Amino acid sequence: MEFSAAQIALMIDGKVEGNADITVASFGKIEDAVSGELAFLANPKYEEYLYSTQASVIIINASQELKQPISATLIRVPDAYTAFATLLDKYQQIQNQQLTGIQQPAYVDATAKIGDQVFIGAFAYIGEGVIIANGVKIFPSAYIGNHVVVGENSIIYPGVKIYHHCIIGKNVVIHAGTVIGSDGFGFAPQADGTYKKVPQIGNVIIEDNVEIGSNATIDRATMGSTMIRAGAKLDNLLQIAHNVEIGNNAVIAAQAGISGSTKIGNNVMIGGQVGIVGHLQIADGSKINAQSGVSKSIKKPNTSVTGSPAFTYTAALRSQAMIRSLPKMEKRIEELEKLVKELLIQKG
Fold it and tell me: CA-CA distance, 16 to 9, in Å (whole number)?
């Protein structure tokens, strides 16, 4: 597919500088793009490549000043990074729209309801009473359990497993290997030292515009629902335990683990390898630094924490500064002790 600079500018509300009729057929990084490719510049560290790149079209910030002439056609936008993301999204939508129909072999239960413009890849399994809305794309080897609902234009990538009765909203993306709705980790200790499994009879509800990375696990609730609210973005390799609630537009990086019944507020940012114990409340807008261990609720909105156990970010920085000063402090204390001892000898 080829698009002209004028067509691209129309898609992202940009202003063309240069040849509006020039066309591109693919994307490239600004440092090594070639003729016929589109690139973008958002990070000032890459500005030098603006003058050496071979890209035919470059998306740049409206505020970007040119230090020398360039050969490429420019498209100026308020935010180049956001505009480029929007363009990639539209490009992907066009590609996905071309995928329709049911490949064989695939199993689709006779009671399943399949919408229009749906794609179901080979070796996918669609169970009893499943509802697949319009525009959904289910890639090969995905498993959609009984009575699952998948909302409009959602994408289920290869090998995703969605257990029975889970609900997936509109425009949700679930990447390869993720498991939605497996049993929560519920076992009751017995007098003889063994553990009795507590049946997990709830489900998982994922609201609209959520994206979940590869090989994440989101456990079904013991009762009720594990909730992923609208707009949340979850990275690869996450563990979300039973009855957890992730708030609107929360962002969680890879290898984080959230224990059962913890409630994550709206617009929370959680770094990689964070561990959060169960039954906590994390206030709206909280920021948790990578590898932190959170053992107490964060009740004040927009609080930043770090460390294990995690405490406020500014206090942690002060503590780190003090730790670095300990060798000097030790030397000063030794000198003071020596001075006191000399004074006592003189008095004695």
Answer: 7
The answer to whether residues 128 and 147 touch, using CB atoms and an 8 Å cutoff, is yes
SS3 91: helix
Q: Mapping DSSP to helix (H, G, I), strand (E, B) and coil, where does residue 133 land?
A: coil
Number of Cβ atoms within 10 Å of the Cβ of 34:
12
> Phi first, then psi: what are they for 203, rounded to 5°?
-150, -170
Give the β-pairing of 26-27 and 37-41: parallel
The neighbouring-strand residues paired with 175 are: none
Dist CA 147 CA 167 (whole Å): 9
Structural domains of the chain, ranges and CATH numbers in brackets: 3-97 (3.40.1390.10), 101-312 (2.160.10.10)
Q: What is the pTM of this model?
A: 0.83
**Which residues does the annotation mark as catalytic?**
242
Q: How many CB atoms lie within 10 A of CB 69?
A: 6
- How far, in Å, CA of 234 to CA of 212, rounded? 5
Q: Is residue 162 a contact partner of residue 146, using CB atoms and an 8 Å limit? A: no
Question: What stretches of 104-252 show up as alpha helix (H) in DSSP?
Answer: none
Label the pairing between strands 195-197 and 187-189.
Answer: antiparallel
- How far is Cα 212 from Cα 232, in angstroms, rounded to an integer? 8
pLDDT in tens, the chain (348 residues): 789 999 999 999 999 999 999 999 999 999 999 999 999 999 999 999 999 999 999 999 999 999 999 999 999 999 999 999 999 888 888 877 788 999 999 999 999 999 999 999 999 999 999 999 999 999 999 999 999 999 999 999 999 999 999 999 999 999 999 999 999 999 999 999 999 999 999 999 999 999 999 999 999 999 999 999 999 999 999 999 999 999 999 999 999 999 999 999 999 999 999 999 999 999 999 999 999 999 999 999 999 999 888 868 777 777 777 778 888 888 888 888 888 888 888 876
Nearest to 241 by CA among 211, 269, 261, 256: 261
